[in-house]
Amino acid sequence: MRDSLPTHHTQTETDTMTAEYEPDPEFVYDYHTLRIAGLTFAGVVTLFSVLMLTCNKIRRCGKPKPKPVEEDDE
Asked: Which GO terms describe its biological process (predicted)?
């Protein structure tokens, strides 16, 4: 049962297990650039969604509505 499983690791065993799993120890995230890029992307998506919600139709967004043509009575 559970009696055969080790319940306790020594400090050297834990260090060995974590040291073996580092796939690329030289790789480091650039958190500042990731944060700026993420905030910029979120801002653009938010601005675009507000623009879509305020426009009547995407095809006519920003274009004036056509004026009705008056017919001459003769």
From this structure: monoatomic ion transport; regulation of monoatomic ion transport
Q: In this structure, what are the phi and psi dihedrals at residue 30, rounded to the nearest 5 degrees?
A: -95, 90
3-state secondary structure of 56: coil
Beta strands in 13-62 (DSSP E): none
3-state DSSP helix/strand/coil % of the chain, to nearest 5: 50, 0, 50
CB atoms within 10 A of CB 20: 7
Instruction: Encode pLDDT of 12-56 as tens digits.
Output: 555 555 557 777 778 788 899 999 999 999 999 999 998 888 885
Q: Which of 54, 72, 56 is nearest to 64 (CA)?
A: 56
